[in-house]
Amino acid sequence: MATILELNDIAKRFGKLDAVKNISLEIAEGEIRGLIGPNGSGKTTIFHLISGFEKLTSGTVRFQGKSLKGKRPHQIAKLGLVRTFQLTSIYREMTVRENVMTGHHLYSGRRGASASTSGKLPLFETTEESAAWILEFMNLTEDADKLARLLPAGMQRVLSIATALAVRPEMLLLDEPLAGLDPTEKARISQKIKSLRDYGITILLVEHDVRSVLSICDRITVINFGQKIAEGTADEVTSDPEVIEAYLGRPADYDA
Amino acid sequence: MTRAALLSPVNKRFIKACSGTALVVPLLVGLPHILSPYWQSVSVLFAINVTLVLGYRLITTMGGWSFAHVSTMGLGAYTMAILTTLENPWSFWITFFLGPLVAGVFALLIAYPVLRTRHYYFFLSTFAAGEALRQCYVQFSGITGGTYGIAFVPRPESILGIDFKTTTGFYYLAMALAVSTGLALYRFELSRYGATIKAVAANEELSESNGINTWAYRTLPFVLGSVVAGFAGTLYGNFNGIIGPSDFTAYLMFKLVAAAIVGGVVTFYGPVLGLLFLTALEEIFRDYTDWVPLFWGFSVILALLFTKGGLESVVPGIAARVRSVRAERDGGQSGQKLEGS
Amino acid sequence: MQIVANIVFLSTFYVSFAVGLALVFGVMRTINFSHGEFYMLGGYALWLTVGLLSGSLPGALILIIALVVGAGVVGTLGILLQLSIFHRLREHPFSIFMATLGLSYVLQVSVVQTIGPMGRSIPSVFPGFVFFEGMILPIQRLAVFGFTVAMMGGLWFFLMRTNIGRAVRASAQNKTGAILQGVSMNKVALTTMFVGSALAAMSGVLMSSVLPVSPFMGGDAIWRAFIIIIVGGIGSLSGAVVAAFMFGTIDTLLTSFGAGKFTAMVDALIMLLALSFMPNGILGSRE
């Protein structure tokens, strides 16, 4: 499968702190990749670097072969690389539906999908229909006319994923999509994330719930202190001694 | 445009606003005939201020409270005054469009540094930029007449048989500007552009990652609002026949800001209500003009302390709708009594 | 050499005026627009004190009394401001800012109506000159310089060495952390408002001994304080000091080369340039 996202020896320095150092990785189209590591290991910084919210100190990021150097976040989103945020980012005073509609910005005002990238999800004639489909897909139809601010935290997170889908991604960067959800919801959203693969959407996700990561992801990259310490399938990673030492501990210590 | 597009929800609301305006226009047209010359003057200035405050509100929709608005208006006034008092004077009507253009270009020029700031810093940086511009009016006396300004500015040449040398004639011009600005800006606000501007103001980071060019959608209302100020400026400078740097001070700027605070900025006409209130105060205390800023200052403080969002939330009928919007704002992530946290 | 003296005088004035504003912003996360009017009230405190006590007491004592009265009265005003407006609107810092804008006009008009709109010069408390190294140094200005330095020293001591001062600094750096450490936010807020406002007033007392006092002197000076704290950096006291010296130098040089009327424009341009390249100011931290 073709490589969709390529990080070449990227680094980010804040003053004297090397938040991220010598990270290289390749993600294949259609893959679901997990990015795990202890708190402060640099996972969110990597997201910021990929999505254009932070400038690389060195190294390059290539998406679909194109360098993302100097591109602003909205330009990167337009290319089809869309992210969510660790601290849930929603339009608090808009309804759920309005949130998703706003995500359609790049594709509204035009008939259908005559935009720069059609993405992977089904296309519709109008943004209203597209939004309705996305809401249904994420099980938000019931809450569609509720004010986003009034949703429970977990549902707000689901909403932020739905809004990201509206931007018609080829690839999603999900920053802790399962945080704040109860086990049933976690299982359901994990399922949803996996099903996005059926539409050909590549996913890179950061998560603390290691068990979920192991079940959702095809491959996992482990980060500590801004550097990659392991990469591979769930089995490979969980048996890597360095990973066990840095992060996983004994099996009984798994995040529930 | 298809029939469906013409009758879209947005256009329906706009048509409603137009019809409402159409009902009011005859009243406005008839007004000068029952007013004394003094009150006609007051109405002219009020109409110009309405235009000014509508432009100001546009800027607040992107979350910024600018303090350069009045100085920018001065660019419109000075452009008009300089060109219509030349040896071979230009026609007012050309300057009527040139002035706003100059104002818009200025806004575009300072947009880069100033829009990098947010909230207070935006206020402060526009404050300083506006003050610097005003200093230019004072210092480049060769062009601007320095502290004495420019006098003998001629009234516009007559069109449609209206004589603008009379206050009544000028009143029609000022009202026409105010009404058309109001309708145009209202339509803009209802449009996709208006909605996107508000989305960017609500959550800039999220909007950016949704593919919205947040820079463009913050610059646009800033420049447009300044263009509107430019239009108001050409009339403002022309009406008095004489302009100088002292016409564009913090005093007038404070009046605009106070109007927006006291009236509220959630609804389109909130600041106009606020302006009405402040102008009423000004006229009631006509014999104590020195006290007026104090009353305005108190109005601002009281409005912030005791109302949920200015006068617009006090007007019955609208009250409920605004209150619910406000309730959603307060305590929320960007929950503020004023836009921009 | 005269220029160096002038630079020092102007810079220390800018520091004394801006630092109170920066302190309030750093701790309260909001800007007191009426800071200029507090400064103005300090100026009138000197005018009153000199008017009442001139001739009956030595100059230094008059100045000190004015400083104490100014600091006390205006500091109390700051506390009232905190209790009435700042506390009530504490969830909406921008609203506080707007309220203080309204307050500044209230104060201005009040002074105009009670005392009168005309500016007045206050006769020198320390008349005379000192000649040194080819410089002509008015003793009054030397006194102002001396008192300003003492004031800044006092502030430094307060922030660095007293418990409440440390609490104030801690709150400016990390509010949540400070609360968790048991710092009383209420006490910190009241103290900060008192100190910040008192600083403004004392700055006004000192400056009015060399410049005319008028109800509008605050409004004239405040925008420069804004430029200083913008360029100096978000809530950074040391940044404000550095920026104050920078502008003190630039403004003095401009004036001595006959371009004094361009200081406003140049200062604003520098601010715009600084914002273009360093939106967080010289020493500002990311918010």
Overall shape of chain C: globular
Q: What's the structural domain tally of chain B?
A: 2
> Unreliable segments of chain B (pLDDT under 50, ≥5 consecutive)?
330-341
Radius of gyration of chain B: 20 Å
Give the helix proportion of chain C (percent range): over 70%
How many angstroms separate the termini of chain C? 41 Å
The secondary structure category of chain B is mainly alpha
Number of strands of chain B: 0
Describe the structure.
The complex is a heterotrimer of chains A (256), B (341) and C (287). Chain A is α/β, with parallel strands linked by helices and 256 residues long. Chain A contains 9 helices and 10 strands. Chain A has helices spanning 43-51, 73-79, 96-103, 127-137, 153-166, 183-196, 210-216, 234-238, 241-248, and strands at 3-14, 17-28, 32-36, 58-63, 66-67, 81-83, 171-175, 202-206, 219-224, 227-232. In chain A, the strands form 2 sheets. Chain A has a 6-stranded mixed β-sheet, sandwiched between helices. Chain A has a 4-stranded antiparallel β-sheet with strand order 2-1-4-5, with helices on one face. Chain A is globular and about 50 Å long. The model of chain A is unreliable at 110-117 (pLDDT under 50). Chain B has 2 domains: 18-248, no CATH class; 250-341, no CATH class. Chain B is mainly alpha-helical. Mean pLDDT of chain B is 86; it is low at 330-341. A two-stranded antiparallel ribbon of chain C has the order 1-2. The N and C termini of chain C lie far apart (41 Å). Chain C is mainly alpha-helical and 287 residues long. Chain C has one domain (11-218). Chain C has helices at 2-28, 35-53, 59-86, 93-114, 139-161, 163-173, 175-180, 185-208, 217-232, 237-256, 263-277; strands at residues 129-132, 135-138. Chain C is built from 11 helices and 2 strands. Chains B and C meet through α5, α6, α12 and α14 of B and α4, α9 and α11 of C.
